[in-house]
Specification:
3-stranded antiparallel beta sheet; about 10% strand; 7-stranded mixed beta sheet; 12 strands; about 40% helix; about 375 residues; Aspartate Aminotransferase, domain 1; binds pyridoxal-5'-phosphate; alpha/beta; Aspartate Aminotransferase, domain 2
């Protein structure tokens, strides 16, 4: 028996992505070659780029393929500071390490000044504080950028990106958003949401790992992070990962085109899990806003129960019972001191269960039964 409840870490690859990848393997040409074999591979890359751009309502030239979400985040933050002249970076301590460790690097090397937006114990940011800060930097004529993730990968909190983009725009500040957890999961229209930089990772929506893309708004100065050949219109050197891009494209199109159904179905599963957990374990608490389906991502639920979490062994016990979930971000699962997100919320701990279009209510039933058994054995 195996229940996969760790879809915020990675998702199972879809049949659609596999089919597209196998087809792309037949086109072994180098997309930079001008002969027919090269042109066939190039056509795969450009068709995927166009498909993504039309679904995000942006220009294909604003999409650059990368080696995943981490690279897209690194590129945005480093470009903003080095190329756009950003002197003040406003971010949050609950960002993914793909952002927070880059920001720390920029700060420690004196490349910009980083300030952390205050938040409460639910992870809600103080935007009034941010507004005053942006206003003061605009008055001084100093360039600022805000970097806030669209949805938090551990607690699911969603920010109002439209509202934040208007706030940044009205004070002349750049905006970067780590949209890794929401790309192909929530509607994103970049003609309305005025982010300057956004990030995407293929493996978060049933595509392959090690491939993603960066959105960089037209007119925003951005020099390559990876230097070498002239691939990606000179924005990112290195022969394109044609097979990965083909898989990413198929998964992206599938998830965006079926989004309304997926939202309905997975929100139903999440709601069911919340109700079931509350009724079986009345003292259960949900970290951040994850217990509120209106304000959190439908794929993420993070719970804490004093008895179940007492001995710190819950994730291990779940794993040996066939349930695969996590205590936080998979990239930091070896880290000492637990989740930096839960620590920042003064939470006593938690377990993240995260769903996908393939999760069923009967898996939730089984999961709750396993939790009851673990509790009765404590
Ligand atoms: C919010 C967030 N940002 C960035 C990343 C990194 O993406 P990738 O694994 O493609 O480098 C992840 C993946 O764990 C994530 O959840």
């Amino acid at each position: 028996m195996s229940i996969y409840f760790d879809n915020a870490a990675t998702t199972p690859i879809s049949q659609e992505a596999k089919t597209a990848m196998v087809a792309a393997m037949e086109n072994f040409g180098n997309p930079s070659s001008t002969h027919a074999e090269g042109r066939k591979a190039k056509a795969i890359v450009e068709t995927v780029r166009k498909g993504i751009a039309s679904r995000l309502n942006c220009s294909p030239s604003e999409i650059t393929f990368t080696g995943g979400g981490t690279e897209a985040d690194n590129w945005a933050l480093i470009s903003a500071v080095k190329d756009c002249g950003v002197k003040h970076l406003y971010t949050s301590v609950i960002e993914h390490h793909a952002v927070s460790h880059v920001v720390e690097y920029l700060d420690q090397n004196g490349m910009c000044k980083v300030q952390y937006i205050p938040h409460d114990d639910h992870g809600i940011h103080d935007l009034k504080w941010l507004e005053l800060e942006l206003k003061s930097k605009a008055l001084l004529g100093e360039k600022a950028m805000v970097s806030l993730m669209h949805a938090n990968n551990e607690i699911g909190n969603i920010i109002d990106l439209q509202n934040l983009s208007e706030l940044c725009q009205s004070h002349g500040a750049y905006l970067h958003s780590d949209t890794v957890q929401t790309m192909a999961h929530l509607p994103l229209d970049f003609s309305k949401i005025r982010v300057d930089f956004a990030a995407c990772s293929g493996h978060k929506f049933h595509g392959p790992k090690g491939v993603g893309f960066a959105f960089v708004r037209q007119g925003v100065l951005s020099k390559p992070l990876i230097r070498g050949g002239a691939q990606e219109r000179g924005a990112r050197a290195g022969t394109e990962n044609v097979i990965g891009i083909a898989g990413l494209g198929a998964a992206f199109n599938m998830c965006v085109d079926d989004m309304a159904n997926d939202i309905l179905k997975v929100t139903g599963v999440k709601n069911y899990a919340i109700l079931k957990l509350k009724s079986e374990f009345p003292e259960i608490k949900f970290n951040g806003l994850s217990g509120d389906v209106e304000k959190s991502l439908y794929t993420v639920l993070n719970f804490y129960h004093h008895k179940l979490h007492e001995n710190g062994m819950l994730n291990f016990q779940l794993d040996i019972n066939g349930v695969h979930c996590s205590g936080g971000s998979a990239c930091s699962s070896g880290a000492v001191g637990g989740s930096h997100v839960l620590n920042a919320l003064n939470s006593s701990g938690g377990t993240r269960i995260s769903f996908s279009r393939y999760t069923t209510k009967s898996e939730v039933d089984l999961f709750v039964q396993i939790l009851q058994k673990i509790k009765s054995d404590i």
